[in-house]
Amino acid sequence: MGRLDEGGARGQCTGLSSLLDDIAIAIHGSFGSVLRLSEATFGAADDGPVEVDLVSAGVWAPLATALMADPGIKMALFSPGIAGILQSNYVALDSFLSELASSLLKPGAQAEGNGSGGRGSGLPPMPSADGSVDFTPLYFHPSVSPELVSAAQSRVHRHPLTADFNKKWNLPIYYQLRFGECCTRLNKAMTRVQKEGWGADVYTGDEAFAKELREKLGFELPLFLELYDSLVWLWRSDVVLMPLSHRFLRGATQLVGRLVAFIKDGLEGSIRFGEVPPPKAAAQKLEDGPVSETGEPIPEPEPLPDNSYCWGERLEDVAAVAWELTVLETSVTHDYVEIVAAAIAPVDVSDINNKSDTEELRNIVADALVEATHDVAPVIRQSWSDVIVNILTLKCSAPLSAVKGIAATYRMTNRPPPKIASPFVSKILGPLKEFDDAYSSRTPPQIGSRWKSAVVYTVSARYSEAVEELIATVERTENALKTRKVRKTASGAMSDGDKVKLQLFLDHQEYASNVAYLGIDVAAVPGLVKLKALTEQAVTLYAQTQGAGAAPPTSGEKCT
């Protein structure tokens, strides 16, 4: 126990690695020649049973028994209660066990000096200064090939005591501890983000690594930095254990799913951000409530204001989160695959078989991580195709209420015919233009410009419906005035109804030019095609205001 704790506090087992090294050196120094002789005589390169196996039965079996028999050592090694100590103990003993045969069967200094032949050097005995004869050159020097060493190591792993030794490790508990650390870290970050918003600085990792993630992968929001840092942390050499690789991979996919579920719930309004007041308690009778020193009932305090909000109603938040999800999906299915594969099976370019196995492992990991991000793409599509489109459609449709007011502008006001478009027209697609300018570089590639077309198509349809209703109202009014013979206009003057139609024509031209500015084909928008048909009768009116022979502007060309 003293050697186990050497160099650190009690229970940390900081001296385990040096103790195991000393054990291997001591056994090799005292019995190395015997072990090599036994292996050269009885060993077999085909991994089959051997008659005498000193490496397994003579060294490993008593050593493993000693480690498992002493209660204090067994508790310190296999059940330290601290994840980091258990991991370092496991790595030290696993490395010792994996290299046991090679460390015991390597040639000694004397064997190296006499060559590596199976027999003696063949030189005659030489008398020394004191007259004695040195027969060392005639001694048999066993030669243990790498195949024999590999076979001996395989017998160590297959030994019945090795299975009992491995069962002493409580690896499932170790995984739960490590996965719990990641879950706690992510839950704390999400709780703070829910309270302070997506810009909350919740990253607790290394700032240099965060800078690398921002520059190399494109992450921006701290919560996503925290998640990806946790995913990478799982595969650090001082965290991961090879027998738990499948569990760590499953844990990584669960962390991604946990964040995606949090985003989806917030997007749909199931959870709210900001300061959410506690639920109000049931009303109490005043006589049952608290009273002051004078016996007067104390009134209930005013309820706290509800400052909560649904971030799915904020364009900037939705677009930012959707972009982070895009970066996360790409990073997990590409860069993260390499991190996991390198941790489980590093590539050995000199070993063709190892390289092939590593490539197969990389494909398995890639398939698992692609499946883990299966729910990311639908959330991205929902964010853009549904949420962002709906919010922008509402904002762009708001100015359309001014279409009805065009008739009142010219009815019985004696105003001159219009020459420019109405002021509200430039505001219709204004929110769409601003949003597109701000987020065009952060639009997910799989989304493209379909979302923009969806907004324009819906707004144009509503615009054409409003114009159609207005034209119908104007024509009914003009017909009524003609019937009653009330309408009086100067010879050659434009009627109020014609002025309204001319204004609608100018507005249509302005709106069409704004649509073209967004990169959308005007002729492919059904609402604009309908608008053109509705305002086409005002082409001659426009020519009258511009002078004889003036050609009317085409759709998408601004009026001057």
Give the topology, please:
Layout: H1 16-42, H2 54-69, H3 71-78, H4 83-98, H5 100-105, H6 109-113, E1 126-127, E2 133-134, H7 146-158, H8 160-167, H9 171-196, H10 207-217, H11 222-233, H12 245-267, H13 315-333, H14 335-344, H15 352-372, H16 376-397, H17 405-410, H18 425-428, H19 430-439, H20 450-484, H21 496-517, H22 526-535, H23 539-546
Antiparallel strand pairs: 1-2
Helix content: 55-70%
Alpha-beta classification: mainly alpha
Low-confidence stretches: 111-117, 556-560
**What value does the average pLDDT take?**
86
Total DSSP E strands: 2
Order of helices and strands: HHHHHHEEHHHHHHHHHHHHHHHHH
**Backbone CA Rg:** 41 Å
Strand order of the largest sheet: 1-2
**How far apart are the termini?**
93 Å
The count of domains is: 3
Helix segment tally: 23
**Main sheet?**
2 strands, antiparallel
Q: Shape from CA axes?
A: elongated
User: What is the beta-strand fraction?
Assistant: under 5%
